[in-house]
Amino acid sequence: MSHPLATLEAVESATIEAAASRLATLLTTGGEGAAGPGEPGLEFEQVIRPRPLPRGEAPADAWAVDGGQAVVADARCLQVVVTRTSRVRFRAGACELQDPGSLRAYLLGGVEGRAALAQLGLPLAPTTTVDANLIRDRWEWEAVERCVREADEGALVLVDGDLWPDWRIPSSYVGSLLERGRQRGVLVIGVTKHSSLSRGGAPLLGQLEAEAEETLGAGTRWWAPLASSRPESVAEQDASPLGVQVVAARLDPAARFSFRIDIPAGTAPEPALGALAAVADDAAFPGYPYPLAVADGLAACPQWVRQEAWLTLDEHLHEAGVSSEVRERAFADRHRLMERA
Predict the structure, then answer these.
(1) From CA 78, how far away is CA 28, in angstroms rounded?
(2) Could you give the CA distance from residue 194 to residue 287 in angstroms, rounded to a whole number?
(3) Could you tell me if 72 and 52 are in contact, meaning their C-beta atoms sit under 8 angstroms apart?
(4) What is the largest CA-CA distance in the chain?
(5) pLDDT value at residue 6
């Protein structure tokens, strides 16, 4: 009779081997049929091919927006989360604004989500589930709205991520914002660092990077149209439907990676991408827009931020008469305590 542990190890080895075999097939072969999970409003190009991208002129006014979030206290049925949204502005190549944004704290879980929902100021159903992702997305778009309002004509406003809002936020909210930007001559572009787009079940951008190197040569700046809003999506009975073009682009010849980039419908892709390439000069991460790199650093909620938020929360609970024993029973990380044992 075999030892249970030996049997378990054999089973685990077999599952890992099977997973590795299937993954190897996907990564090296891939296939046709591009897709983007969670984005049913997109219609993908039948044939996707990289093409050369000329570098454009840097915009005189460039903004960037990014958000951060963290769980400060977790009682499972109740959570205290904090979010913040940073804004950065570069004018004539010089950094004029670095606003990390203030931390906003929310109590989530059960009926407590209703109070958080009311603070979002959006026309959402009372039964809408509220989590940190929804809160962060809502205030990121509010920050983008402020950038569009304050930007000079011809400005570029960069968003970390795509131009599709959280599924609970009406797409017309962002559609209206993009239209106001167009009317003011302000272009809003979304840049996704690590895309979930796929082709034949394998990461699409990885395939395009290999194809571009083979057909255009190494050290080439390139772009490829991927998808756009479906006609029926744009034709909704909505004053401001969300129209988006999705492309992939390698914004610097020395860049290791390409990115998914979202551009408002009706915008000429090459000039927009050329202008984006002109600010994609992050020395630490070639090919990534530097204003977004700065915004990302400001918005982050590292461990020390969480710790300071917890200490402030803990102090308020103490002042409210909540004993240390009650606080410990509610918020102790039992998994961590057991792992230390």
Answers:
(1) 45
(2) 13
(3) no
(4) 77
(5) 54
